[in-house]
Structure formats: structure tokens, C-alpha cells
Amino acid sequence: VYTIFSKVHSDRNVYPSAGVLFVHVLEREYFKGEFPPYPKPGEISNDPITFNTNLMGYPDRPGWLRYIQRTPYSDGVLYGSPTAENVGKPTIIEITAYNRRTFETARHNLIINIMSAEDFPLPYQAEFFIKNMNVEEMLASEVLGDFLGAVKNVWQPERLNAINITSALDRGGRVPLPINDMKEGVYVMVGADVPFSSCLREVENPQNQLRCSQEMEPVITCDKKFRTQFYIDWCKISLVDKTKQVSTYQEVIRGEGILPDGGEYKPPSDSLKSRDYYTDFLITLAVPSAVALVLFLILAYIMCCRREGVEKRNMQTPDIQLVHHSAIQKSTKELRDMSKNREIAWPLSTLPVFHPVTGEIIPPLHTDSYESTNMPLMETQQNLPHQTQIPQQQTTG
């Protein structure tokens, strides 16, 4: 119980220096005892644990602080280079641990008290690109110590500090293929208080610059002191001498495309009068409505009040055309009515009305008992069963 309550919600204070690399490891073993069921002494548990870090009161960390954790079974690492602007201001980082098996959480605060470093910043800074390391491997104290020891043997400074470490992925690098244990690479910046050694200056030789432009490895005499553990890309080394840096401020020559300086922005005061938008609203709504109403009235007058009508159309149509049209309508109506019931009498339009010789009206050609469904719609005079014979002239006597 004492172990549990001594760890839960406990605050840790760290005191990094501004301009010097800060590394803080979030150990999984530190949080394992805070998740129930609590392990007994000597019991080993390997639950997956992940961490979430943020500045107290904010959703993310400060800009200078990074965090990395490869898998839930590895430790998390907070690292970065504090800035001089945060000196004397405590930075509280909330660390929340999640047990991915039991879904339990534990939280404690990390208080970062940034101190001012002596002779900050170091005037001579060199950035190396190490191809065979990942950032979490380089952050290990023993690995970083070995690299600083190799740089110290080459540079021979009195003070040497690691300023910053950046993953190649944060510089636009690509994720390597998962073959041959390829690494993503890491940039390591170190600073010293003495000028660069002749070995580091060999990168600036014209011969080596030419070889780098041809994507060939330059010839560096001190590379063998790193090659045993670190593979350095000498074409990507950066040497910065802050003692020779001068102000690069140039007066802006105003011309095309450059707006004149309008001075400092002055927001409107809170004493502005409120504006009434009721009149603007009515104008915006009334004008389109009035135009739409006028167009509707014009269209209604044309469609309803200017109609000529059926009677005027019939008066302007010739009588013979109306008769033909009426006959066609009557025949069409009669055929439609006949199709509904085939037992009705034949249409009058298909029957002979006058005797072909005498001109007398003749009765229908079939009786009511005749099977009309078996008779075709139209028959010729030769196929009629009751065809009338033309009377022969009889001689007297």
C-alpha cells in the first residue's frame, strides 16, 4: 500500500538547462504497480502500456518537447531542447499511462524547471546525420555518451554538449523498408566552445564537395573513429559558427506587389453603435417579391384573359375539315366501344346502306342470332352470304 500511494499522482521535478538536450524516460516498470490487480512482490507482469503527454491545461506539449514510444511494450521518451524564453518558468507536463489490457489509467505530473546555462549558446555548433540509428536508440544515455566521446576525440573542445536530437522523419525523411534492419536515421546537433577541427573542415574541401554532388562518399580522415559504431553521412553535416554570423536584415525596397505599411492594427472599440438591419432586410425581401408578383400577374393575364376559345377556332376552320374531323372522331369512338363488347351489332360504317341497283334501303346482312365473333370486320361484296342478285330483264310473252 505504501508503494502504491507513494507513486500515484506523485510529482517529479527535473532541472534541465536551456540549449542543452533534455531526455526523460517514462519507464513502464514505474507504472506497472499502479494498475490493479496489484502485482505481488516478485511477480512479473508484462501488460501493454502506452502514454499520453500534454502541457497542463492544453491538449499538446510545448513546441520544443517531443515524445516517442515505438510499441506498448517499450518505454516512452520525452526529449527536446529547452529555449531561453522558458527560463525560470516551470513547465508542468501531465503524463497519463494507459493499461491496454485492463483499460486502467494512472497519471502523474512532470515539473520541468528550466535553468539558464553558462555560456549559452555555445558558439560553434555541428549537426551530424547518423544513418544506422533510430531516435530512441540514440537517446539512450550510453549510446549518446559514446557518440559525444567520439566527437570529443575529433574536436578536442573544453565544453561539449548535445544540443538537440531530431528524427529524420521530422526532417522530411521517408520510412525505410523493413529489410536488413534498416534505420530511419537521426540528426544530432552538438555545440562546443572551440573552433571546428581540421577533420570537420575537410567536408568543405572542393574535392569532397564534388564527390557529394556526384552522390559519392567523401574522404574524411577521422571517419574511422565513428565507423565502429556510427555511420555518419558526411555530405549532410552542417557546421555553424555563430561568432561570424552577422545580421541579415535588409531594408525592404517597396515596389510592385508590396503593400505600404499600414501601421499597427487597431481593432474597433467596444462603444460602437448597434446597427438596425430591419430596413435592409425588408428591401432585400420586398424587391424580389414585387418583381415576382408582377411577372405572375402578366403571365396569368396572357394565359387566362387572352384565350381565343374553341368557338373562334371552329369559326376560322373550313366546314369540310370539321366534317372530316367529326367523322373520324365518331368512327374512332365507335371502334373503341365495339372493342369492349364483341357481341354488339356491326358498326354501321361497315354495312351497305343502299341497294347497289335499285337504291333502296336494305336491312342488315345478318340477324341477331348470327355469330358475329366469327365474322371479319370488313368483307367484300363477293363473300357476303346474302348478296343481292341484280334482277334480269324479262321479255314479254
Please render the helix and strand layout as text.
Elements: H1 2-7, E1 11-14, E2 22-26, H2 28-32, E3 49-55, E4 65-68, E5 76-80, E6 90-99, E7 105-113, E8 124-130, H3 135-138, H4 141-155, E9 160-167, E10 186-192, H5 198-201, H6 206-213, H7 224-227, E11 238-241, H8 278-305, H9 309-315, H10 319-340
Parallel strand pairs: 1-7
Antiparallel strand pairs: 2-5, 3-6, 4-5, 6-7, 8-10, 8-11, 9-10
Describe this structure in words.
It is a single-pass membrane protein. The protein is α+β, with helices and mostly antiparallel strands and 397 residues long. Among the domains are: 12-114, Immunoglobulins (Immunoglobulin-like, Sandwich); 124-241, no CATH class. The chain contains ten helices and eleven strands. The protein has helices at residues 2-7, 28-32, 135-138, 141-155, 198-201, 206-213, 224-227, 278-305, 309-315, 319-340, and strands spanning 11-14, 22-26, 49-55, 65-68, 76-80, 90-99, 105-113, 124-130, 160-167, 186-192, 238-241. A four-stranded mixed β-sheet has the order 1-7-6-3. Strands 9-10-8-11 form a four-stranded antiparallel β-sheet, with no helix packed on it. The termini are far apart. Residues 1-8, 367-375 and 377-388 have low confidence and may be disordered.
